[in-house]
Each structure stands twice: as C-alpha cells, then as structure tokens.
Write a structure and sequence with these properties.
The chain is α/β, with parallel strands linked by helices. The chain contains 10 helices and 12 strands. The strands form 4 sheets. Strands 2-1-3-4-5-10 form a 6-stranded parallel beta sheet, sandwiched between helices. Strands 6-9 form a two-stranded parallel ribbon. A two-stranded parallel sheet has the order 7-12. The chain binds NADP nicotinamide-adenine-dinucleotide phosphate.
Length: about 300
C-alpha cells in the first residue's frame, strides 16, 4: 500500500493504541506513515454506532485492531461482554474496512486452540477453544472473515513489550524482591516481542497483492513459562541488573488454583505460512527477550 507517486503518506489507524501491542505499533509506524491511534477513551469497542460514525468519517488505508478484552479470567465470567468486544466489534470493523476499501488486520490469539496438539499449530488446524476468551476470539475470527474476505487475521502468542507489563515483567519484579520465584513448567508456547510483531506485520500491508485469511505470527522456538522466566533472569544477571533470585523453580498449571479460566497446555504457532508469503523469518524468542532486557532493564542500572 506504500504510496509511491504522491507525497502523501499512507494512513494507518490503530485500535488499542493504549495497550501493549497497539502502543508499540503506533510508535513503530509513525515515522513512515500517518498514524492515528485510538485508545479505549477515544473509541470504545462497545459502542458500535460510534465505531461506524467515527471510522466512516476518516480516511485510512489500513486499520489494525489490537484492541480486545484480553483478561482471560474476567472473560470467563463475562461471556456476553467478551463476545461483544472480541467478536461483534471486530465484525463491524471488518465491514467498515470493506466499505472503505481499506486493509483490515485483526489480531487474534493462540488461545483459540485447545492445546492438545504436541507440534506447532498450523492455520488449518481446528480451533477449539477451552475458555470464553478463546471462544470469543475465535468467534471474532469467524465473523471478520465472513464480513471481509480481504481481512487478515493474525494470531500471536505470549506477547511482551515495553508498553504494558506482562508475565515476564511480573516475574522479574518478583525476582528483584525475593530469592525464590517459581513459574509453570508444563505449559508451552512462544514469547513474542511487540517490536518484532510491528516489523513482521509491515510486509503484510505494504504489499498491494496480499490476500486475506488466517496467519500465525510469533517469534521462533518454544518454551515453558519457567524456561521463559529463567532466560529473562539470566539476561538480567548478564546485563548487571540487580536481582535477588538466580533460578526459577518449577510449578504446574494444575497448581495455579487462582486461575478461573482453563488455559491450553501447548499453543506453539507454526510460522511457515508467514515465512512463505513474506520471505522473512521471525527471530528466535531468546534473542527477542535478550534485546528487551538490554533495552528496557539494562538502562535502569
Ligand atoms: N498479551 C498476550 O499475551 C496476547 C497473546 C495472544 C494474543 N494477544 C492478542 O493481541 C492483541 C493485543 O493484546 P495486548 O497484549 O496488547 O493486550 P492489552 O495490553 O490488554 O491491549 C488491549 C487494548 O484493548 C483495549 N480495550 C479493551 N476494551 C476495549 C474497549 N471496550 N474499547 C476499546 N478498547 C478496548 C485496552 O484498553 P485499556 O488500555 O483501557 O485497557 C487495551 O489498550 C489482542 O487482540 C489480544 O487478544 C495477546
């Protein structure tokens, strides 16, 4: 979609601009594109009429929806709200983009899978969620695809980045204060850096001919939460970031009795389709985490 013949920059609208991924996308694309970021305060997904009137009045070439009700346990007890925000609102966005002939990129999740597989999930694998959050996101995928066949639905996993704390930051906060930290050792997927998602998404909207459908996007490799936490801690020690803990002990998913919703055990996403389409491969999650620690924890020395 890059505009080569005029001086006008292409326009990208990002929903969820106050969130972990959306905030990074706004920052990453701002130098080259005219970016309009919408936070929940600017535009509430709950208000479908406002979505229609606000977005129909604006001109954009690409709309990226990184807004969602992401609290898995909250969703479990608020099914109607989850379906409205994660399924019906994306359908309306897909429709708006179809009418405006704009590209729609909708962010989805590895939690659409039940986690019973023991090899990376392909886009064609059946999505059988085991939580209301997963169900609402899968329903969003279905409604988006039905409303707009050019829409691209991008599933990501275990997102981390500087714009909002996630699992890795919670573990490091604990490791800073306590000598003993533990993390779940029997749940596997791939940590994925918001910076990497921002650069890996680019070819998907910069190429005019890009079609729609499902696409898996994650850093390369796989690990448990325990391995992820241990690597982050190792990186901190290497960078000289003060931490009380040295090792991350193992616990099990079954021991997380405070979880309300069930979590899938294995949700590694296969990225071969992405690599085939773009001729670009995501880097290993170890490198992404190491860079994050260096950039955002190393500087706090
Ligand atoms: N985090 C992960 O590990 C992970 C894994 C797989 C997939 N994903 C997907 O990645 C996408 C981005 O997630 P994230 O990690 O950036 O989560 P996040 O930090 O929770 O961002 C979600 C954003 O959506 C906004 N939002 C929530 N309800 C809204 C509403 N009614 N109207 C407008 N905006 C609303 C939130 O607003 P507030 O700022 O007001 O809260 C927040 O800014 C989501 O589609 C999520 O399902 C995330």
């Amino acid at each position: 979609m890059a505009k080569t013949r005029s001086n006008a920059k292409s326009k990208i609208a990002v929903l969820g601009a106050g969130g972990r991924l959306g905030a990074t996308l706004v920052r990453a694309y701002s130098p080259g594109y005219e970016v309009a970021g919408f936070t929940r305060g600017d535009l509430d997904l709950a208000d479908l009429d406002k979505l229609r009137s606000t977005l129909s009045a604006r001109k954009f070439d690409v709309l990226i929806n990184a807004a969602a009700l992401t609290n898995v346990d909250y969703c479990e007890n608020h099914r109607d709200e989850a379906l409205h925000l994660n399924a019906e609102a994306p359908r309306v966005l897909a429709e708006i983009c179809r009418k405006q002939n704009a590209r729609f990129i909708h962010i989805s999740t590895d939690y659409v899978f039940d986690g019973e597989k023991r090899a990376p999930y392909l886009e064609e694998d059946p999505a059988e969620p085991i939580s209301v959050y997963g169900e609402s996101k899968r329903e969003g995928e279905r409604r988006v695809a039905e409303a707009n066949e050019r829409a691209l639905i991008v599933r990501v996993s275990w997102v981390f980045g500087p714009d909002r704390p996630s699992f890795i930051d919670a573990i490091l906060k604990k490791a800073r204060q306590e000598e003993t930290v533990v993390a779940v050792a029997d749940k596997l997927s791939t940590p994925t850096y918001t910076h990497d998602i921002a650069s890996l998404l680019r070819p998907l909207f910069e190429k005019e001919s890009q079609g729609g459908g499902l696409l898996h996007l994650a850093n390369r490799g796989e690990c448990s939460w325990q391995e992820y936490a241990q690597w982050a801690l190792d990186c901190c020690h290497r960078e000289g970031v003060k931490m009380k803990a040295r090792t991350v002990g193992a616990t099990s998913l079954a021991a997380m009795t405070h979880f309300i919703a069930r979590r899938p055990i294995y949700t590694v996403l296969a990225t071969e389709k992405y690599e085939r389409i773009t001729n670009q491969a995501p880097r290993d999650w170890h490198d992404a985490v190491a860079e994050y620690i260096r950039e955002y924890y190393g500087r706090q020395l």
